[in-house]
Amino acid sequence: MADRIGDPTVVADNVHLTYRVHGASSGKGSATSAFSRLVTRKKAAGVTEVHAVRGVSFVARRGEAIGLIGRNGSGKSTLLRCIAGLLPPTGGKIYTDGQPSLLGVNAAMMNDLTGERNIVLGCLAMGMTKQQVAEHYDEIAAFSGMDNYNGKDFTRLPMRTYSSGMAARLRFSIAAAKSHDVLMIDEALATGDRDFQLRSEARIRELRKEAGTVFLVSHGMKSIRDTCERVIWLDAGKIKMDGPTEEVVAAYEKGV
Ligand SMILES: Nc1ncnc2c1ncn2[C@@H]1O[C@H](COP(=O)(O)OP(=O)(O)OP(=O)(O)O)[C@@H](O)[C@H]1O
Ligand SMILES: [Mg+2]
User: Fold this and answer.
1) Which of 70, 139, 148, 190 has its Cβ near the most Cβ atoms within 10 Å?
2) Of 52, 72, 64, which Cα lies nearest the Cα of 11?
């Protein structure tokens, strides 16, 4: 809601991120040189730099849901990792108010543990007390649908028995149980089925009302349109456009 939009939660000031890749090919990188290296068993050497984010600046405010769109490799995930504090920017500055949580990365899921244990651990990791975990447990299990999936209680089964979409649902449900200052969701919705997508979009709208800022990375323009009123379009590591969803998505769809 526009009237709730308030104080800045994330300020990115001319952010750059360059990955340094060790052991990359120092040659021109042609398929033949890679093949000849393979045959002659020579090691690739050198360091290659990938300048993934190139001078990005924006201000995100409380109450905003911001879509992040752009082609594969345009730097969306990298930018979120910088905001989450997982990658220090190689240039520029990021100021955040509160702890930004990147869905799917902050939530460390243990494959050999049951869904139930993962819910408990995930909640504790987000800073809930045991009492709060007990209060939220049923709601998380029910929201994920894993307590009764095709008639089976999957919360009693280890996570390795989950499909990737089922695991993503549980991850989202755990993260969404808490109000976040800044919640970042990287493609998580795309893996859920239609029914779960609708429920999670509704939950994102609620989280936004609870006055956090939500960043949503998606290639699905429908999710972006339904969830965000502002969109940042990244292209080759730079902001190509930043504005109202309809304007930016229309331009993106024309340009792609
Ligand atoms: N760990 C890494 N080491 C080196 N380069 C990386 C690494 N991760 C990403 N890159 C490079 O950084 C650039 C941006 O990648 P990033 O994953 O941020 O893109 P993206 O916009 O999230 O793409 P997608 O839509 O495919 O998820 C790409 O050129 C990619 O090759
Ligand atoms: Mg990505």
Assistant:
1) 70
2) 64
